Input
Amino acid sequence: MDDAAVILDGVSRRAGGVQILHDVTLGFAAGRFNVILGPNGAGKSTLIRIAAGHIARLEHGTVSYWDAPLDTFEADALARRRAVLSQQIEMAFPLAVEDVVMMGRYPHYRGVPSARDREIVREALALVEMTERRHQLYPTLSGGERQKTQLARVLAQVWQEEGTLEQTVLFLDEPTASLDLHFQLQLLATARTFLRRGATIVASLHDLNLAFDFGDRFFVMEGGRLVHQADAPEDMPKELIERVWRVKADPIAAGGRTRWYFRV
Amino acid sequence: MTDRSFTLILIGLLVLALIASMAIGAFLFSPAQMFRFAGERLGWLAPNPAEALDGNVFFVLRLPRVVLCGLTGATLGLSGAVMQGLFRNPIVEPGLAGTSAGAALGAASVFVLGTQYMNFLSPLGTAAVPLMAFAGAFAATMFVWKLSTRFHHTNVFTLLLAGIAVNAMCSAGTGFLSYIARDPQARSIAFWNLGTFTTADWHRTTIVAVVFVACLAPMLRHGKSLNALMLGEENAGYLGIDPEKLIFRLLLINTAMVAAATAMVGVIAFVGLVVPHLLRLMRASDYNFLLPASALLGALLMEVIDVVARVIIAPAELPIGIITALIGAPFFLWILFRQRWGRLDG
Amino acid sequence: MRAASWLGVAAIVFASRAAVADPPPGDRVVCVSKQINEFVYDIGAESHLIARDLTSIYPPQIKKLPDVGYHRALSAEGIVSLRPSVLLTDGNVGPNEVLDRVRAVGIPVVTMEPGDTPDAAQALMLRLGDYFGRAAAATKLVASWKKSMAELARTAKSWPADKQPKVLIVHFGQIANDYLGVAPKGAAGQILEWAGGRNALQATGRMTRLTPEIIAGAAPDIIIATDIGFDRYGSAEKFAAMPGVNLTPAGKNLRIYRIDETEIMYFGPRTPAAVTKIAHWLHGP
Output
């Protein structure tokens, strides 16, 4: 049984007269690629935001990181341990790529960045293969390049001084939306490499097969409830998939791994 | 070239502009003269009776004007940069968002209605004008902001329209007050709506200086926060910033700064629009650079414009607002067109 | 009657002398009052002047002097750059800070208020005579001025109310570029009264901003317009076509006359001549 990096206990959320989450209890496994799955409106985004600490006061339930309740963390301290990559960000002003990545270091320094901060930014850029474009202006990048830049930023945000990513959480909220296939795969593959340094990843993904290719642990949401947890792609029953996503699902064997073919 | 060397160049140009502004006008002063005047005032040199008048003009008329002009330019440039960061849009500045017009209305109401109708102001003494200017500027800015920002997203067109509406209301109010003014102390419509440094004196300059210095440090510290805000309020929150508190605090400081300057000088528009935009084009959008640079370029630009205003129809003087509008309005249109054609991402 | 008038003048002169002594004029006087400028030329002290304001245009030779702008829109630095020995005003200057700033730089400012009556204006001339060391000329001029005023009082007919035409005197305000109507108070109103006219306006201030409705409502039989305002239209016909004016008896009968503002906006030695001229317009030869 894994250690849980992030635990949600009995979390419910109501907004705009609608119950978005019902009594969700789960633990995201430390050091693993956790994937939240579910159709639109299932509450995936809200789940991520609550887990990331965006919504300050919860009416019901608690969130804790490594057994410490979320509200005991100071804003800066939390920002140094967890980062969120959301869908495409449009920036109103043209900053250079390396300046965007440097924003990830903001919780780590006051005033001026240190040499170590600059080094970390360089390394993050190298990991996402954006080194050559570090002076380019963000608005001139393609969608995939922008997400890679943001990925480098969130990586730089949780990069600890000693070079480790232990005890850090990266939330990826539909990071591959509207990206080319090439960038989708590249982004997720790069994210997986962070696990080697000890990072915990929590991502919400639309594409089931992509999720099964990259994910370690799976959490299925339907109508605001957690309806299934799986420790491996093989633990996803066909009936569940067909019910939740309202499709016909046929398993395909591909190189020893089970993937799915979908029809309406 | 780094951001730092660019900033140093700006400082150098500003120094040159200050010297030019101190030198040029109905009286022409050479740097040698200026040193002599300073020396005489400080007691290092014996006073020269032949230059007594020149020295007096320099210290009583020219110098406070140069200082006030620079402070006002710095205020407006900085304010434009900050407001653009807060609203996340390049077409914002205190003139267009109603802040300046609100400040003018507040200040004008004290001058015209004064102690007669506003007894509650008497205990405030000379602070009454800047305080009422602040109240007016704050009300105007809040109105425009609330109208145009919903769910953390600012609708540009609503912003511009609300700004137009607030500007129209405030300048009508100021105009009306000028029209009915009996008290000779009340300033004219031309003063309020077109701005001028003609009436600069040490009293006014000191007020603006005190407020500016008090507001400058807190503002310059927010380079990182304003950068982070570019990612959107939610993402800025994940970086450890409280966006609501930040926006409110910065708007407050910004309003105070603009109100003080406008109360003493009148409304000067477009500087806050042009300055940050030029800097982004020439150099960078990074707020750690943009904030101090906007203050410097704003001061520099204002000094140059004031020299032109003094000289172009000498011995009469052109109100500053006319020149800034002549430069700023076409610039504003240009920005608008670029946005529409999508070349400037926004 | 005469003695009382002299007494009145003497009292005013005495009172003004009792005030703090004025700094001497010197050779570089900038004077921004058209009334004072006229008097200065009258007493022969014009060699002291180096500059005037925009509206000082009488006598014609004064136009050779440079002007420092409109007297209600002065620039301190502009005035001071002429290095004047004294700035001389009648108190009617703007913006308000200007005089303070000129003083702050070390230039003496002397204000001589002309007052509301011919006596006060004559006292002003005597004061100027003292000030510029031309007392004898001033006294002589005041004496002949008094004589012609007395002559006027004697020969002027007193017209019964129904024979007094309603007259609107239209002045032009250069600050806001608008037309102003002159009220009964003040020099022009008084001159009109002496000429046997009734003021079409009953305002309490000195001037009223005119609108077409006010002009039409006043329904004057005769309009007298000062030079700058009249010249903007160029002729009586064009002036009569102005909205509001075209609805008045004056407009319809083309009884529109032009007069220099220096003739009627303040009291001076030319006042009796102005009264006679206006009386002629009002009542015929």
Summary: The radius of gyration of chain A is 18 Å.
